[in-house]
């Protein structure tokens, strides 16, 4: 697929997915949060993860906060991303409570900056996604931070995209820089691609 066609198809699919997310009812969101939290806890437990890289979800995303609260309560080391101007991510452990508005108006944790390579030491990486296809190809929201991070890692632990059930699709448009994931976690299931 030529890059212009892929970029255009991604924009159209992202717009459709954003609209779908905006149309979720409060009850649907609460049900999704409960199921997602259960599945994230099961995944972290099954992998015996002692450290995890995750992110603070926005109000439009599947809610990661109950899982983060569980992880903190269990004594897991949780790394959260801090966006940088150069397109890389710094990481912090944060305190699980304090947030600030990051570079793009998204919620980010507050804490000591650990640098981009801190992620190399985690047992599990959870990433946001707009959609993931049947082959495990992830489509993000277009800034490329997670693709750049995952593409630069020498030895990558399991990477799971976090999304709503309807966002597992047959195929996503693909560009050269896009990175696949090992699995996906939704409110109703944990899917493995590798």
UniProtKB/TrEMBL annotation:
Q: Which GO terms describe its molecular function?
A: 5-formyltetrahydrofolate cyclo-ligase activity; ATP binding; metal ion binding
Q: Could you tell me which InterPro entries the record lists for this protein?
A: FTHF_cligase, FTHF_cligase-like_sf, NagB/RpiA_transferase-like
Q: Which PANTHER family match?
A: 5-FORMYLTETRAHYDROFOLATE CYCLO-LIGASE (PTHR23407:SF1), ATPASE INHIBITOR/5-FORMYLTETRAHYDROFOLATE CYCLO-LIGASE (PTHR23407)
The record's catalysed reaction(s) read:
(6S)-5-formyl-5,6,7,8-tetrahydrofolate + ATP = (6R)-5,10-methenyltetrahydrofolate + ADP + phosphate
| Keyword line | ATP-binding, Ligase, Magnesium, Metal-binding, Nucleotide-binding
Q: Which organism is it from?
A: Leifsonia soli
Q: Which family does it belong to?
A: Belongs to the 5-formyltetrahydrofolate cyclo-ligase family.
Which residues are involved in binding ATP? 10-14
- At the top of the EC hierarchy, this enzyme's class is ligase
Q: Does the keyword Nucleotide-binding apply?
A: yes
The UniProt record lists the keyword Ligase: yes
Name of the featured protein: 5-formyltetrahydrofolate cyclo-ligase
Q: Where does substrate bind?
A: 56, 61
The residues forming a coiled coil are none
Record EC number: 6.3.3.2
């Amino acid at each position: 697929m030529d890059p212009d066609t892929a970029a255009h198809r991604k924009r159209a699919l992202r717009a459709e997915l954003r609209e779908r997310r905006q149309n979720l009812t409060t009850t649907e969101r609460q049900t999704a949060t409960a199921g997602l939290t259960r599945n994230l806890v099961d995944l972290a437990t099954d992998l015996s993860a002692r450290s995890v890289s995750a992110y603070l979800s926005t109000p439009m995303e599947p809610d990661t906060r109950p899982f983060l609260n569980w992880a903190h309560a269990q004594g897991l080391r949780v790394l959260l991303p801090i966006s940088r101007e150069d397109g890389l991510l710094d990481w912090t452990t944060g305190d699980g409570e304090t947030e600030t508005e990051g570079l793009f108006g998204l919620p980010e944790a507050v804490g000591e900056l650990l640098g981009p390579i801190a992620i190399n030491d985690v047992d599990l990486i959870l990433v946001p996604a707009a959609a993931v296809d049947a082959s495990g190809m992830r489509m993000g929201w277009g800034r490329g931070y997670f693709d750049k991070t995952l593409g630069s890692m020498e030895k990558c632990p399991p990477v799971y995209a976090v999304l709503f059930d309807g966002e597992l699709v047959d195929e996503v448009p693909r560009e050269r820089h896009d990175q696949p994931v090992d699995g996906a976690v939704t409110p109703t299931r944990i899917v493995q691609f590798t």
